[in-house]
């Protein structure tokens, strides 16, 4: 919807309101705070359980994710803007998505006034699944952040929130008021210092898209509202001039070096009713037409399917499942006493990157082994199982190494060793599960206990016959213990109760088998084989001697 030549802002607003009478209401969803800010000690925590419920939903966890975040100073309308983004996501009709004229604005909590509203980082509980023109699907997550530079936040708090949102988003909307001032650029340089260092380590820009969203733009006669005016204004503001001070040049070089794409959008003031009416609840009838017209341009520019920017780290697309790991890794570095050196942010990124690669490779190994020897599969020969394990282990390591990872070869080697160790541990569990399907393995414990009882019975009888009553009594005691153990083991297997006793009996029986009975049987078998071979050789030599004697006689 665009304003025609000669059409006033009020006429545009009335036309637009008439077209939005059939707006689709939002589903039941709400903002969820995933990064908690503690005002007393200025400490940040991640609500992992809430974030897992959002990102690990079956229909989105393996989709590439698009994260749109809005950050900036407090009380500048970030949540207000995000609620219009929600309207667009719930109703992408190009003519009606903005809503009805008398419809209150709901979604992320917001209000007028001079005190802050949002703390920490919030995300919308519903992850939107969008079909792109190439047939692929992506998951879209909207993120709201605590406003910077309020009276209750330290510089460390502001840097933490801005850095976290920038590191986890694919599009960071830097919400500013009226103009881009030099301190805005300097704060951006501080918050993205991680980017400069990361670029030196991985030789690429660490962040993706940055949009300067200038609210309440008062100079449309110099640079018109919208994307085109923002482009010309941004070029002028970020221009590096020969006569500039070195500090000013470094700030601009740094910002260009951190983001793959930088844009700017100029927004008009929403109107005096919005700014001064304490009961304003977001109804479009109270908002100026110019502001609504530019909303029709800026929101689709960010969120229409053809403009969505998928999250990438280190050149690899990030899924919702991966994003959860990155959140966990990043939050750890902010839970110390001081704001960490940007190098530690790179370390956290590399760690999360490698952990995501380990999880993906391990998942391939586990699924393939489950298909080969899972619960419904018959018993498999140990040699075949070991060969399958070795083949899948090589394939999983190959997949791990094929994923683009940060941190360098030496750093990644530690995670490859971790992957190998975890696969070996899984293999040990698969071996136990496979052995439990072997009927002879299952009978090992009762057979061992029965062998102990039989042996003790024989020894007891012999020693009692020759008068060694103390040894006979000891053998009878061992035989009784073995009998009680056998009965107890049978009961635990039948009833499923007292499983810990059954496990202990299995372990003792396995030890007796491995340390006593198996070596004895192996020695007896070796002796029998040796005696058989000796007898065969002796018989052969005797027969040859007999034939030689007969030949001499003849």
Task: From the structure above, extract its key features.
554 residues; alpha/beta; nine-stranded mixed beta sheet; two-stranded antiparallel sheet; elongated
Can you tell me about this structure?
This protein is of the alpha/beta class. Helices cover 56% and strands 12% of the residues. It is built from 18 helices and 11 strands. Strands 1, 2, 3, 4, 5, 6, 7, 8 and 9 form a 9-stranded mixed sheet that branches. A hairpin with a 4-residue loop joins strand 1 and strand 2. Helix 1 packs across helix 10 and helix 16 packs across helix 18. The radius of gyration is 37 Å and the shape is elongated. The N terminus is likely disordered.
In angstroms, what separates the terminal alpha carbons? Answer: 124 Å
The structure class reads alpha/beta
Mean pLDDT: 78
| Oligomeric state of this protein | single chain
Helix fraction by DSSP (H/I, runs of at least 4): 55-70%
* Strand/helix succession: HEEHEHEEEHEHHEHHEHHEEHHHHHHHH
Number of strands: 11
Radius of gyration: 37 Å
Task: Describe the sheet with the most strands.
Answer: 9 strands, mixed
Shape, per Cα inertia axes: elongated
SS summary, helix count = 18
**Poorly predicted residue ranges:** 1-27, 111-116, 194-200
Strand content: 5-15%
């Amino acid at each position: 919807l665009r304003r025609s030549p000669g059409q006033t802002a009020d006429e545009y607003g009335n036309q637009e309101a008439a077209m939005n009478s059939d707006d689709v209401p939002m589903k039941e969803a709400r903002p969820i705070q995933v990064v908690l800010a503690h005002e007393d000690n200025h400490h940040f925590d991640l609500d992992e359980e809430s974030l897992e419920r959002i990102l690990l939903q079956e229909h989105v966890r393996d989709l590439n994710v698009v994260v749109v975040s809005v950050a900036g100073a407090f009380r500048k309308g970030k949540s207000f803007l995000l609620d219009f983004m929600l309207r667009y996501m719930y109703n992408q009709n190009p003519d009606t998505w903005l809503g009805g004229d008398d419809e209150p604005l709901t979604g992320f909590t917001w209000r007028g006034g001079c005190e802050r509203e949002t703390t920490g980082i919030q995300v919308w509980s519903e992850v939107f699944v969008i079909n792109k023109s190439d047939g692929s699907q992506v998951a879209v997550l909207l993120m709201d952040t605590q406003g910077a530079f309020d009276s209750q936040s330290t510089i460390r708090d502001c840097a933490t929130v801005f850095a976290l949102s920038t590191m986890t988003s694919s599009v960071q909307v830097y919400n500013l008021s009226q103009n881009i001032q030099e301190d805005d650029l300097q704060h951006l340089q501080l918050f993205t210092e991680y980017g400069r260092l990361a670029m030196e380590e991985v030789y690429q820009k660490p962040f993706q898209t940055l949009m300067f969203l200038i609210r309440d733009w008062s100079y449309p006669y110099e640079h018109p509202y919208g994307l085109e005016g923002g482009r010309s204004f941004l070029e002028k503001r970020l221009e590096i001039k020969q006569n500039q001070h070195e500090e000013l040049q470094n700030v601009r070089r740094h910002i260009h070096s951190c983001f793959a794409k930088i844009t700017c959008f100029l927004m008009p003031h929403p109107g005096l009713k919005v700014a001064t009416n304490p009961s304003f609840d977001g109804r479009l009838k109270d908002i100026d037409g110019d502001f609504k017209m530019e909303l029709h341009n800026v929101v689709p520019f960010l969120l229409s399917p053809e403009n969505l920017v998928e999250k990438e780290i280190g050149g690899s697309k990030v899924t919702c499942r991966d994003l959860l790991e990155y959140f966990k890794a990043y939050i750890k570095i902010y839970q110390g006493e001081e704001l960490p050196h940007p190098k530690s942010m790179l370390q956290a990124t590399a760690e999360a990157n490698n952990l995501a690669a380990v999880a993906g490779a391990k998942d391939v190994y586990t699924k393939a082994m489950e298909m080969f020897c899972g619960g419904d599969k018959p018993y498999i020969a140990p040699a075949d199982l070991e060969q399958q394990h070795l083949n899948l282990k090589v394939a999983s390591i190959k997949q791990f190494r094929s994923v683009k990872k940060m941190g360098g070869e030496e750093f990644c080697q530690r995670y490859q060793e971790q992957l190998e160790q975890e696969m070996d541990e899984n293999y040990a569990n698969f071996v136990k599960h496979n052995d439990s399907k072997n009927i002879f393995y299952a009978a090992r414990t009762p057979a061992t206990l029965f062998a102990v009882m039989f042996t003790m019975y024989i020894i007891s009888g012999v020693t009692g016959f020759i008068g060694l009553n103390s040894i006979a009594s000891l053998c009878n005691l061992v035989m009784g213990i073995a009998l009680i153990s056998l009965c107890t083991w049978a009961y635990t297997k039948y009833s499923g109760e007292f499983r810990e006793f059954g496990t202990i009996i299995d372990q003792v029986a396995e030890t007796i088998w491995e340390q006593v009975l198996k070596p004895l049987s192996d020695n007896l078998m070796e002796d029998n084989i040796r005696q058989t071979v000796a007898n065969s050789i002796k018989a052969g030599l005797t027969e040859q001697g007999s034939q030689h004697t007969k030949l001499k006689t003849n």
